[in-house]
Amino acid sequence: MSRFEITDLSLSGLKRIERKNIGDSRGFFSRVFCAEDLAEAGWVKPIAQINLNRTSRTGSLRGMHFQYAPHAEMKLVNCIRGRIFDVAVDLRAGSPTFLQWHGEELSAENRRSLLIPEGFAHGFQTLSDDCEVLYMTSHPYAPDAEGGIGALDPMVGITWPLEIADISERDSNHPALSQAFEGIRL
Ligand SMILES: Cc1cn([C@H]2C[C@H](O)[C@@H](COP(=O)(O)OP(=O)(O)O[C@H]3O[C@@H](C)C(=O)[C@@H](O)[C@H]3O)O2)c(=O)[nH]c1=O
């Protein structure tokens, strides 16, 4: 029996993963990652890193980040404290959903995660103070292979739920996409 409810989203390969809790008088147990169950959702490589970030202020934004091949990575993004609006953008060259985005709320309470394939940019905005995001990646961090697109890039047009209250200098200076951008090849 799978410990997850796996739902295909509008961009191919992007999945919503809902953790099933096993509750008792003490609380609950749930799996955050399970290689056997998540292979069905497309996660077939070993986990390279498990990262945790904490964001203090509501409305703060991290992203949109990706890594170029051969360092492209899949991510399983989980919010374990607070609430976030999590967004994935399809940057895959030739994809029928190229430059389309999908966003949804992730929280400890709704037990939802996003499984984001290689070739997507990822980012999120916090919907509450003191958010903690725990995410697994299928490839090690490779700063020289990192790419970024602006959270407000008009070529993508993400609708963020809140005004941006805080953002890193790097994330506010990603180069704007041009009409000539054909996407990234994996
Ligand atoms: C992601 C990462 C960062 N770092 C360092 C670089 C820098 O000094 C510091 C903070 O890095 P950043 O500002 O890139 O952290 P952050 O903005 O939290 O980056 C994350 O954002 C979300 C949206 C993602 O999708 C992740 O893949 C990752 O890119 O941590 C590592 O040492 N290892 C890592 O794996």
TrEMBL record:
<feature type="active site" description="Proton donor">
    <location>
        <position position="135"/>
    </location>
</feature>
<comment type="function">
    <text>Catalyzes the epimerization of the C3' and C5'positions of dTDP-6-deoxy-D-xylo-4-hexulose, forming dTDP-6-deoxy-L-lyxo-4-hexulose.</text>
</comment>
<comment type="similarity">
    <text>Belongs to the dTDP-4-dehydrorhamnose 3,5-epimerase family.</text>
</comment>
<dbReference type="GO" id="GO:0000271">
    <property type="term" value="P:polysaccharide biosynthetic process"/>
</dbReference>
<feature type="active site" description="Proton acceptor">
    <location>
        <position position="65"/>
    </location>
</feature>
<dbReference type="GO" id="GO:0008830">
    <property type="term" value="F:dTDP-4-dehydrorhamnose 3,5-epimerase activity"/>
</dbReference>
<protein>
    <recommendedName>
        <fullName>dTDP-4-dehydrorhamnose 3,5-epimerase</fullName>
        <ecNumber>5.1.3.13</ecNumber>
    </recommendedName>
</protein>
<dbReference type="InterPro" id="IPR000888">
    <property type="entry name" value="RmlC-like"/>
</dbReference>
<dbReference type="GO" id="GO:0005829">
    <property type="term" value="C:cytosol"/>
</dbReference>
<feature type="site" description="Participates in a stacking interaction with the thymidine ring of dTDP-4-oxo-6-deoxyglucose">
    <location>
        <position position="141"/>
    </location>
</feature>
<dbReference type="GO" id="GO:0019305">
    <property type="term" value="P:dTDP-rhamnose biosynthetic process"/>
</dbReference>
<dbReference type="InterPro" id="IPR014710">
    <property type="entry name" value="RmlC-like_jellyroll"/>
</dbReference>
<dbReference type="InterPro" id="IPR011051">
    <property type="entry name" value="RmlC_Cupin_sf"/>
</dbReference>
<keyword id="KW-0413">Isomerase</keyword>
<dbReference type="Pfam" id="PF00908">
    <property type="entry name" value="dTDP_sugar_isom"/>
</dbReference>
<comment type="pathway">
    <text>Carbohydrate biosynthesis; dTDP-L-rhamnose biosynthesis.</text>
</comment>
<comment type="subunit">
    <text>Homodimer.</text>
</comment>
